[in-house]
Write a structure and sequence with these properties.
The protein has one domain. About 75% of the residues lie in helices and about 0% in strands. The protein contains 11 helices and no strands. The two termini are about 35 Å apart.
């Protein structure tokens, strides 16, 4: 299983390591993506500790000997991360940007749940078994499908902002904003209702990869002025945005690969049952 999901798992790990390194270097959390309340003293130390955890956990996901314990630690970390978005949702559920924020982290959490379902080794646990194996993967797929929809809707609600992030050398920037928004909604619905779900997940992965490099690529890391109006000057914000998009894309790829693998496992099991039945009839 590690070989089957190695590319997606490696990309997810790289994203974890990079985001963790940024937190440790800047002694802070990932802006609005990690809305840890302001408290002093100790906030900087906590940010460094969380950053180092992400680096260590990301490395541990890459090795067979440590992937099980790493997957358990990562899913708890991502659950806490997701819960950081709940206060804003309670205060302002009518604002689509709030749903965008929770959708992005829910997509990330769904990728972590795929890793947990496949590698945690807790299939025999009376409580955790529902989150492992095929049942755990199905929960991850449903959550991911639901989470993509508000992310796509944000492109339509905030079309001017979205269009402003499209590189200026591309034509029809507003058209791209609408196209990507509708495309993400369609991908979410496809995954949710199992309408070509693997294709939908791969298309979502491709779109996120394009967003990462076209919107937050290396040219923005060294730009004199921030690309997004109101964002801080300097490389930290675009680097954070790049690796957040990177790790969400990796989560999408994990979902896509798990849909492929799940179908493959089902087909193998069906063939094995057919073979056994035939052998029984002719025995």
């Amino acid at each position: 299983m590690i070989r089957e999901q190695q590319p997606a798992l490696s990309l997810f790990s790289i994203g974890m390591i990079a985001l963790g390194a940024l937190s440790a270097i800047y002694r802070d959390f990932a802006y609005n993506w990690q809305p840890v309340p302001a408290f002093y003293p100790g906030r900087g130390a906590l940010a460094v500790a969380c950053g180092l955890f992400m680096v260590i956990a990301g490395l541990a996901l890459l090795f067979r000997a440590t992937v099980a314990i790493a997957s358990r630690a990562v899913i708890l970390f991502l659950l806490v991360w997701l819960c950081l978005k709940i206060p804003a949702l309670i205060v302002a559920p009518q604002i689509e940007a709030v749903w965008l924020g929770i959708g992005e982290i829910a997509m990330l959490f769904a990728g972590g749940l795929v890793i947990f379902a496949r590698f945690s080794g807790l299939e025999q646990s009376s409580f955790f078994q529902r989150f492992t194996g095929a049942s755990g993967l199905r929960i991850a797929h449903i959550l991911f499908g639901l989470a993509v929809i508000p992310v796509g809707l944000s492109h339509l609600f905030y079309v001017k902002i979205t269009a402003s992030l499209v590189p200026s050398w591309l034509p029809f920037r507003v058209g791209f904003a609408y196209l990507t928004g509708v495309g993400q909604i369609a991908c979410g619905l496809g995954i949710l209702f199992l309408v070509l779900p693997r294709l939908a997940a791969y298309i979502e992965t491709a779109m996120l990869a394009i967003f990462a490099f076209l919107v937050w690529g290396p040219d923005t890391w060294f730009a004199a002025a921030p690309k997004m109006v109101g964002s801080p000057v300097g490389p930290r914000f675009p680097l954070t945005a790049f690796f957040i998009t990177w790790i969400i894309a990796a989560a999408s790829l994990l979902v896509a690969d798990s849909l492929t693998n799940e179908r493959s496992v089902t087909d193998k099991a069906s063939k094995q049952r057919t073979t056994n039945d035939s052998a029984g009839r002719y025995a």
